[in-house]
Amino acid sequence: MVRYILGFLFVSLLFSCQNTKAPDVSHIKADIEIVRTENQLSSIKSVSDLNKLMDGHKAFYRLYFSEVLSISNANNPDSLYTGVSGFLRDSLISNLFNQVETKFKDLSTVKVEAQQMYQYLQHYFPLQISVPRIYTFISEYGYQAFIFQDDNGNDGIGIGLDMFLSPEIDYKSINPDNTNFSSYITRTWNREHIVPKIADLHITEIIGDAPGHKMLDQMIHNGKALYIKDLILPMIQDSLIFEYTGEQLQWCQDNELEMWSFFLDKKLFYESNPVKIGKYINPSPNSPDMPADSPGRTANFIGYKIVKAFMDRYPETTLAELIAMTDSQQLMEKSKYKPTRK
Fold it and tell me: Which region, left, alpha or beta, applies to residue 14 given φ > 0 means left and ψ of -120 to 50 means alpha?
């Protein structure tokens, strides 16, 4: 069963985390196995071949064929083989396989980054995280990443590599009417964001849903997610953490006080109308009524700053205790967060 999905959801090196306080995790074992299912599929020539393939990874392939590829009668071997064969013979799919093979022939850097991330995840959440097997696949532009339960009852991660082909692929041209393929979203659909997207899946599971619908609840909740993401990915640039360009992150850094004042003046902290607050907490090309060069999700940036101020002020607070804090107003007040003029 799929639990969390990142479906339709180059980076400047100006901001590097350089987290000198990152704990030593070298003793934590996090051996990653990456199963390249797009390569395995290309060798299928018969129903027998398909059955042998599925025997090795039943949970993933059942999910992949029935949910990702939407092959009807996927439980019938003959029907399933017919569907898979048709998928593989499609000229557009063949071209997509070639593009994925060209860009992702070598995933060694992704594997190293993933192993480092799982070392930190196990350090901070030893009772909640185990190292999953990662399955890469081609989804025909349908699924980017998801967590599912594998054959042994452990977590498995599915990664749709065709959703990480930017900038070689102009996703907007595939379906111009689909807002999920807008450039401000697909800009992050590249190799550098694969491991951060996997991190997002785990963080979503760990912290659950926001405790309320007010913007303050949402921005503090998302701030917690960004704070944890920063901890478990100390080796990557801050712009990857926030999914901003270097210029957008610089804008937020330079205008932190102005953003804070804007939210106060507009009384947005306690606004719960999703139409009014959506672009401040969800992916968007900009933030309404802010300068044109402001990025979207500016409330999340401030939420991160509030959470970081709180944790800096109360360093004895565990991540479990931080996550359990559901009173956003109290957390903000205790943080004593107050941005200064640059």
Answer: alpha
